[in-house]
Amino acid sequence: MPEPKITIYSTPYCDYCQMAKQYLTENKIDYEDIDVSVDEKAAELMVKKSGQMGVPVIIIERDSKEEIIVEFQKNK
Known about the structure:
Layout: E1 5-10, H1 15-26, E2 32-35, H2 40-50, E3 57-62, E4 65-70
Parallel strand pairs: 1-2
Antiparallel strand pairs: 1-3, 3-4
């Protein structure tokens, strides 16, 4: 089974974003980080997918399905 693709929509000044990225890094989980403070199109996509303007928004894609997690939730 292939590994899920994880994307984090974040900003550099968001404490919860930093916590989420630190958790993933410490657990050797690969992810793509998208800084929505400088990427307007990515910010629009994040809001469209999640309905949220706040960060972090974490998207886990596996088997062509997306699980959207708003805020850092270690248990998910």
